[in-house]
Amino acid sequence: MELIEKAGEFASRFGRWNPNDDLNGYPWVENVHAPFTPVRRALPMMNLGLISSAGAYIDGTESFNLSGKGGDTTFREIPIEVEASDLRYAAKGYDPKAVTEDRNALIPIDRLVEYQDNSVLGSLNSAWWSISSYVPDASAVATILAPELVERVKHYGVQAVLLIPASRLCHQTLGIVARALEQSGIPTINISVDPKITDKVRPPRTAYYHGELGSVAGKPNWSEYQRRVLDETLRWMETFDQPGSRKLAVDLETQVEAARGER
Q1: SS3 47
Q2: H helix or E strand, kind and range, residue 154
Q3: Cα 74 from Cα 96, distance rounded (Å)
């Protein structure tokens, strides 16, 4: 199965696209089919990998290039021990305010380590992967970025991957990466706050809600909200028996909290 169906048509349309910050006229990838790999391990026995497209990099190392038409197809492999204060963000297409205040808004290391410590999750992989928030060239994602990420994920023996986008364009990029991972035999789940885009690219599993770009994994400095997003997302990963998307209950629960005068 192709990561981008009608790849030649996309390449032709992308070649004619005039880059702009609002992505006006951008030729979004549109797939019909999706690969699918069943989850073979329960969460308490699973080594979970994390991929975030917040454009994070370690302070003092090379940033992502946000200036080219095609974007930056490199990635950063970051040990989970690296502190939030040591991360910087090359942000395009989203406001980095939330993730700068609390990395868990896009990179929920602290929440996932909590799950690991409480035996909800077998383990969080010892390294996570950061990719650029701006990669308009989907063909390069499919032929360069996705295969290289698959190789690294397999190197660590990761048994499932959680993918968290930061911008609108990231939803497409990570959707393609998820398709590559599932095609290689590694189950995935994407969190989405723009289901129109994820429905176009068709990653195998998507959990969506009406959240905000820049804090897709939950509002900053609100750990309970972040857990609410992650709990349902991760537990759903085991229950999908075919490709699809499901809406998280986080919106309704938050409305109930507001009505009660809670945060």
Answers
A1: strand
A2: helix 146-155
A3: 20
